[in-house]
Amino acid sequence: MTPLLNPITQAELNYNTATRQQEIALSCFGAWKRRFACPSLGLRTKLDTSLIVIVATAVLHNIAVAENDPVDFEVIEQYEDVEEEANQD
Known about the structure:
Strand content: under 5%
Distance between the termini: 39 Å
Number of domains: 1
Number of helices: 4
Organism: Asbolus verrucosus
Structural class: mainly alpha
Protein name: DDE Tnp 4 domain containing protein
């Protein structure tokens, strides 16, 4: 969604606000998925177990953000390479 350049009406202002909020949410989910591979690769577990994994990784991500722990993209790229090789077999 593209924000309006010169919002005038309340509806246009609301649209721009919603767009900004959506971008923030997408950015947060993207950072979380980069930090932990399981949310982006999919969970192949029972629903109850998946919920526990989602909550645990979200809590750990929030702790890492609070401690200013950067995401290590090199490790993620290595993991994705291994995942691709496993899927080819």
